[in-house]
Amino acid sequence: MTRELERMRWPELRDDIWPVALMPWGATEAHNTHLPYGTDTMLGREVAARVATACAARHVNVLALPAMPFGVNTTQLDVPMTLSVMPSAQLLVLRDIVHSLAHHKVRALVLLNAHGGNELRALVRELHPSAPMLLSIVNWWQAGDHGIFDNAGDHAGELETAAMLHVAPELVAPIGTWGDGATRESVFDGVREGWAWMPRRWSQVSADTGVGDPRAATAEKGERFIAQAVRRIAEHCIQLSTADSQTLYRDR
Q1: Which among 70, 118, 119, 163 has the fewest CB atoms less than 10 Å away?
Q2: The predicted structure's pLDDT at residue 94
Q3: Could you tell me the CATH number of the domain that includes residue 128?
Q4: pLDDT of residue 52
């Protein structure tokens, strides 16, 4: 049985308790010249579904919620058909989702982030004092070993390209059309050295909207990375399913 809510029917849900819910948060934006605009959303949805299936194999009910396809893309609005929502809008959506899930005995909600522009920590911090469940954030692309790749890249690089070659190869353009993901560096010393931060002006940073060279990507690398990420995220969800909110820490 699927554990993806949008594919399930009422009889499959009504008699079970679902202690953990996974909500993928994606985006709609350009991903170099070879990946689709829905890359983040597709990968988030797929990872969530696989995590829920992995948890089911260990007899833990984890429900994969529908993916949010809109992310914070304020620095990419000069790229055609980038769609962006503000963090304030994300907060409103998240508050309502938490309120909805609270009626159904969900004990923990994992925000499975698939887009670097989604700064979800501030949202969780705002909701935490009144949230009736544990809230956790997982950036799925950080859950696997980047050593699998020659250079994982930041945006539409080797990691994301490999993942899409594994998950949806039919949506990846032929390799001869791939941009090299070359980027320009900031004129500010602090930004280059990492102790200062500014939003990236995407069209000034990258000629092809990519950040990181994707050309060493293979479907095999994507399969290995996603499998590792799924195992780790599933373990996190299993731990959340029985966690006591009053004893979340232990002695070293």
Answers
A1: 119
A2: 97
A3: 3.40.50.10310
A4: 98
Amino acid code (one letter) for 174: P
Residue 14 maps to a domain: yes
* Residues 14-46 pLDDT 10s: 989 999 999 999 999 999 999 999 999 999 999
Structural domain harbouring 228? 5-241
Could you tell me the strand order of the sheet in which 134-139 lies?
62-64, 20-25, 108-113, 134-139
Which residue in 88, 228, 78 sits closest to 146, CA to CA? 228
Residue 72 amino acid letter: V
Judge residue 41's burial from the number of C-beta atoms within 10 Å of its C-beta, 0-12 exposed, 13-18 middle, 19 or more buried: buried
Q: Is there a domain that residue 248 lies in?
A: no
Residue 11 belongs to a domain? yes
Tell me how far the alpha carbon of residue 200 is from its chain's centroid: 20
Nearest to 155 by CA among 48, 68, 40, 72: 40
* Cβ pair 166, 226 in contact under 8 A: yes
Region of residue 181 (left: phi > 0; alpha: psi -120 to 50; beta: else): left
Type of residue found at 9: R
Q: How many domains does the chain have?
A: 1
Give the residue from 119, 136, 37 showing the smallest Cα distance to 72: 119
Which residue type sits at 148?
Answer: I
In a domain, 247, yes or no: no
